[in-house]
Amino acid sequence: MLLPHETNRTRLLLAAVPVHTALSLGWGIVLAKLLPRKATIRWGAAAGVAIAVLDLGVFGGRFPRIRQLPVAPQVLDHIAYGAAVGAVLRGLATDRGWPGRRRRR
To answer: What's the CA gap between 18 and 43, in Å, rounded?
Structure first.
């Protein structure tokens, strides 16, 4: 995305890591705010499908290198990501209360 004409794998990796990290953290924050407190893993997986539609369909379609990727593994990766975020949030909720939301007193 940052270096559309670059072919050097090291430079591509160095550019991809901060972009992917920022996107993952951003979606994690969104999920922490929006996911319900029950069935968090299932809702996270469902959110992963929605994120895949946005990432791959709406935005990713603008980038040839993303369009060239096989779709099924990418969608499965997004589903796994959403489920993993849901699992982390569920674990945090049992330890300290729901992250990203203020506790009512």
So the answer is: 27
